[in-house]
Amino acid sequence: MMNTSCPRVSFEFTGRFLPPVYFLVFTIGLVANGWGLKSLLQKWRKLKIINVFVLNLGLADILYLLTLPFLMVYYFKEETWIFGDTFCKITRFCFNLNLYGSIGFLTCISVYRYLTIVHPARMMGRLTVTHSVAISVMVWLLVSVQSLPDMFYTKTFGNRPGKCYDTTHKRYVEDYLKYSLGRTLTGFCIPFLVTLGCYGHVIVILCRRNTIDKVQKQRSLKLLFILIVLFCVCYIPYHVLKNLNLFSRVLLKQQVCYDWFNGVYIAHQISRGLVCLNSALNPLVYLHGNEDIPSQLTQLLQRARQMFRRPPQTDSGSVPMNQITDEV
Fold first, then answer.
1. What is the CATH number for 223?
2. Which residue, of 112, 166, 204, 316, has the fewest CB within 10 Å?
3. What's the angle, vertex CA 81, arms to CA 79 and CA 84, rounded to 5?
4. Which residues face 81 on adjacent strands?
5. How many CA atoms within 13 Å lie on the side-chain side of 293?
């Protein structure tokens, strides 16, 4: 329904919602990605083709996670950016590198799984670690070129500390909407369709062939489930709501107002929190792609149990355990 007077948009919701999400993602993501990368690097000589993509996925996550403390300060200060225009653009650029780099490397993993399951004879010995490194470099270059125009849009306004826009100032919102739609098509829609097509065909092959190992079937289905979660929770809502919110800003600039503007804004802020979760959820790919990590996790849990169950050593001057328990 169109209104003559524009409804009030709840801008304060962002400052309440995003900082706790960023803190949670920063804490979990840094630990999980650090552990996963360490495990991969320890097995560098045994690095498999798919692990090269997983390694780059982790690097993209770390790059973004290191910018989150600055964004937390920004929102705690009621959206007052104190780190300068250049660093604001770098921070937003790192987000785009993480987002579209993650989508790109997840697509590479999907295509690799497709080729090894559907065309195993053709791919045997043809795809090497060198090829996967070259493909990874191409992904980084494509994502960088795709995200570079974003840095030419205004991210701060004025010389004084102020906003650090994740998109741009309202003066340039029409052009930015066009750019955002193009980036959504090339950076998200096409890779998503490729991933969907690969795993759709893989599922058909797994159901038809009885010769495929049961363990391989389970691993492929688990990876498919992880990718579905990542795309449905992190990527799809963000891209839909981001462009819808930009469209509402264009209408607002033209003094065309609708009741759904505030709802779209709040939903978009929630989707921004969800999309950064990919940096904490991507380590699930480590658990799937690296066979050593689940066993390491099991050993770590067993050691923790032994530490809690093992009674402390006592000497002649020690205090009885029941007395210690009572004092505590």
1. 1.20.1070.10
2. 316
3. 165
4. 162
5. 19
